[in-house]
Design a protein that fits this description.
Immunoglobulin-like, six-stranded mixed β-sheet
């Protein structure tokens, strides 16, 4: 067994512990790249325990250190076996007679740290217990602005959605749509744009259903439609529960790009779209229906029953009625914004 005569995580610098910096979602960093170890004898029968790990913590081996199964190797020489390391469980490396102070020093210098969390703790202390001598590496984590994740068709393949509808029948364009953000407590904006309006701006538009409009008013959200651009905008602050926008139209194709008001370290917005399974409930004032108004005949006709709480009858202008199958495809895009942490 060895007698530890020196164990310093930060080398020649003052103190015996180490301080490192890590940026969320970045590549792994070395935990103690200048660590020093000195001892009399080898470490057979002794161990290195690494604790303070979180479920998202990933400790790796780099450079001269490697794993072969459970065997820990330094430049090809096995110096012990490893256990633990998953879901925050302590890592324990049990050493054999080949575990000299020089090899253990190399091992510690080659250990790496990374985190898989999109909402990591601002600081994490990783403790090294080498044969009873304890040192700590404190990692300061810089969070980044994770993007909203928007999927218009929920668990189905892809991230866009499509819907077709008969005239005078309200239809949810994206009833399974999911919008979430890993680290933002609120949503601040949603924009749905009818990008093609072949029958004209005056007769084709997007709107909230009556029930949805009441929810928006109660939540203090501002709703406005721009006929010139075909954009329905909803702004304000609402809980971060997934937004479920739905529209009604004759035949539509939807595409969506989430957007945040916040920006990353570079100061520029970033976009992404990822699939997520929808939760069982949608307890949010953002749960609404956006209605598509289409031209219709002059003949009186009762409005169809609303298939969801925010639905409203399609408003129609006096123009010749057309068969549903002949109506052109309208393309709708949606953009969502999330507020700061």
């Amino acid at each position: 067994m060895a007698t530890v005569t020196g164990f310093d995580l930060n080398g020649s610098r003052a103190g015996l512990n180490e301080a490192r910096a890590y940026v969320e979602n970045a590549a792994a960093i070395d935990l103690a790249p200048v660590a020093t170890v000195s001892a009399v004898g080898n470490f057979a029968g002794q161990s290195l325990r690494i604790s303070g790990l979180l479920p998202e913590t990933r400790i790796g081996f780099d450079g001269f250190a490697s794993l072969s199964g459970a065997n820990v190797r330094i430049s090809g020489t096995t110096i012990g076996t490893i256990t633990g390391g998953s879901n925050g469980v302590d890592i324990v490396i049990a050493f054999n007679a080949s575990a000299t102070a020089a090899r253990i020093q190399t091992l510690i210098q080659e250990l790496t740290f990374a985190s898989t969390s999109d909402a990591p703790a601002a600081s994490q202390a990783v403790t090294f217990n080498l044969a009873g001598t304890v040192r700590t590496a404190v990692i300061s984590v810089t969070a980044v602005n994770d993007l909203p994740q928007l999927d218009l068709n929920g668990t189905a393949s892809g991230t866009n959605g499509a819907a077709s509808v008969r005239e005078q029948t309200p239809t949810a364009i994206a009833p399974a749509a999911i919008l979430t953000d890993a680290d933002s407590p609120s949503l601040t904006a949603l924009t749905a744009t009818l990008t093609t309006r072949p029958n004209g701006d005056a007769v084709e538009s997007l709107a909230l259903g009556a029930a949805a409009a009441q929810l928006a008013t109660a939540a203090g959200l501002a709703v406005g439609y721009n006929a010139a651009t075909g954009s329905l905008g909803i702004t304000g602050t609402a809980p971060r529960t997934p937004i479920r926008p739905s529209c009604a139209a004759s035949s539509t194709t939807t595409s969506a790009t989430p957007r945040q008001a916040r920006t990353g370290p570079s100061g520029s917005p970033r976009t992404t779209a990822r699939a997520r399974a929808p939760p069982a409930t949608w307890p949010s004032p953002w749960r609404r229906s956006m209605m598509r108004r289409c031209p219709t005949s002059t003949a009186a006709r009762p409005a169809p029953p609303s298939p969801w709480p925010g639905a409203a009858a399609i408003r129609r202008s006096a123009s010749p009625r057309r068969a549903a199958s002949s109506m052109p495809i309208r393309r709708i895009s949606t953009v969502a914004s999330c507020g700061p942490n």
